[in-house]
Specification:
CATH class: Alpha Beta
CATH architecture: Alpha-Beta Complex
Helix content: 10-25%
Structural class: alpha+beta
Order of helices and strands: HHEEHEEEEEHEEEEE
Radius of gyration: 17 Å
Number of strands: 12
CATH topology: tt1808, chain A
Distance between the termini: 43 Å
CATH superfamily: tt1808, chain A
Largest sheet: 6 strands, mixed
Oligomer: single chain
Strand order of the largest sheet: 3-6-7-8-9-10
Length: 200
């Protein structure tokens, strides 16, 4: 990749070939390569997204779709346009959107980053600050091993104030429940839902 001398606009970033852009983020107008992600890292992100989607669907059924949320993995979330900044969370829960509307910070209710050797500092410091500045209400950090998710740290913007406040951590040794919360809607996840190997 060539050295970038001047910041890009959001539109210029979107003009980058989609296959190349999949491994890039843009921060303050400058293109940043994403950290390495191994098989277990990607599997845990996928398992989390699937489990969160089940909870979102249950909420939609309870509310007759009045409370409509969907999940995504590794999709651009536009935090702000000037200077252009967008992150690709490992999993994200957001309000339902029309097919071609850009996913942006104001649509997001939970951002999840899966920690790894290459990403931990970026996720704990830089991304956490960016997501808080953009007003994303809930931020989860997930550690993992070869079995699956090991711990989930949950942070929230309390009363809209920044930075994030730590509101709880669960660990696989503490029991079968990985998450049991009522905000932003009822979510109950089991550690068995977040294992790398498929259940048979």
């Amino acid at each position: 990749m060539t050295v970038q001398h001047d910041p890009l606009t959001w539109e210029m970033f979107l003009d980058i070939d989609e296959g190349i852009r999949a491994d890039l983020e843009i921060v303050d107008g400058y293109v940043v390569p994403r950290e390495q992600r191994g098989r277990e890292h990607q599997k845990v992100g996928t398992r989390l997204s699937t489990a969160l989607e089940r909870a979102a669907v249950e909420q939609m059924r309870r509310t007759g779709r009045a409370d409509c949320h969907e999940t995504n993995t590794e999709v651009d979330v536009l935090l702000w346009e000037v200077p252009a900044t967008a992150r690709k969370p490992d999993a994200v829960v957001h309000r339902c959107l029309p097919e071609f509307e850009q996913l942006a910070a104001e649509h997001v209710v939970i951002v999840v980053e899966v920690l790894s050797t290459w990403s931990e500092r970026r996720d704990r410091v830089h991304k956490m600050a960016d997501y808080a500045d953009a007003g994303n209400p809930h931020y989860w950090l997930v550690s993992f091993d070869k079995v699956g998710a090991v711990s989930i740290e949950r942070y929230a913007l309390i009363g809209g104030a920044k930075p994030y406040v730590h509101i709880g951590t669960t660990h696989r040794d503490m029991g079968p429940e990985a998450v049991n919360v009522t905000l932003p809607f009822p979510i109950r996840l089991l550690w068995s839902d977040l294992e790398v190997a498929p259940q048979v």
